[in-house]
């Protein structure tokens, strides 16, 4: 009788262990799916940056790059005449370690939140704001703007799927920041002071 009871106990323990192993594998599988979904969300608007040194000025742009993904961007996803954080997720920021002149106005060396107000009929407004570390435009405050300039948008020859910033040297002490997305581009010429 003791042998039968022992065999039954071993059998029950064996079934219990197999059941726990099954549960372990399924929870691992669920975890893998969650990681995969997170990775997918991250790649929709990947975090990236652009840097250049022009006439000794180190200029750095940090942003998340959303994709068009068959959407109408300007006048659709992004309303005209409203402040946009010039990227996805956190506000785009621009840093320079030397003073710059943009449209005859001074942008002192520092780190700034970069915002854009796209317009259907007028030049776009480009904004440099002292509050560079913020989520989107949630905390945007016009009183913290240090510089506002205008830029005429131009049509791209082809679709720019992901928001892209470039910084290029145009002369010994001059350069151009270009932002392109969907079928629009804006250019921000600057001079290192």
UniProtKB/TrEMBL annotation:
Q: Which domain of life is it from?
A: Bacteria
Recorded hits in PROSITE patterns, A to Z, give: PROKAR_LIPOPROTEIN
Q: Where is this region: Disordered?
A: 21-46
Compositionally biased tracts (Basic and acidic residues): 21-42
Q: Which organism is it from?
A: Psychroflexus sediminis
This one is known as DUF2911 domain-containing protein
Q: Which Pfam families match?
A: DUF2911 (PF11138)
């Amino acid at each position: 009788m003791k042998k039968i009871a022992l065999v039954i106990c071993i059998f029950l323990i064996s079934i219990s262990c197999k059941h726990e192993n099954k549960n372990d594998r399924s929870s691992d599988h669920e975890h893998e799916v969650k990681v995969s979904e997170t990775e997918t969300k991250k790649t929709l608007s990947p975090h990236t940056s652009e840097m250049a040194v022009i006439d000794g000025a180190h200029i750095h742009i940090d942003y998340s790059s959303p994709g068009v993904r068959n959407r109408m961007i300007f006048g659709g996803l992004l309303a005209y005449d409203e402040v946009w954080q010039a990227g996805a997720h956190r506000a785009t920021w621009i840093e320079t370690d030397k003073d710059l002149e943009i449209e005859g106005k001074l942008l002192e060396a520092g780190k700034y939140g970069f915002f854009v107000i796209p317009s259907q009929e007028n030049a776009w407004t480009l904004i440099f704001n002292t509050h560079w570390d913020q989520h989107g435009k949630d905390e945007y405050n016009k009183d913290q703007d240090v510089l506002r300039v205008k830029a005429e948008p131009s049509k791209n020859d082809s679709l720019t799927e992901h928001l892209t910033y470039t910084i290029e040297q145009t002369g010994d002490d001059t350069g151009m920041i270009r932002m392109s997305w969907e079928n629009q581009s804006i250019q921000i010429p600057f001079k290192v002071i």
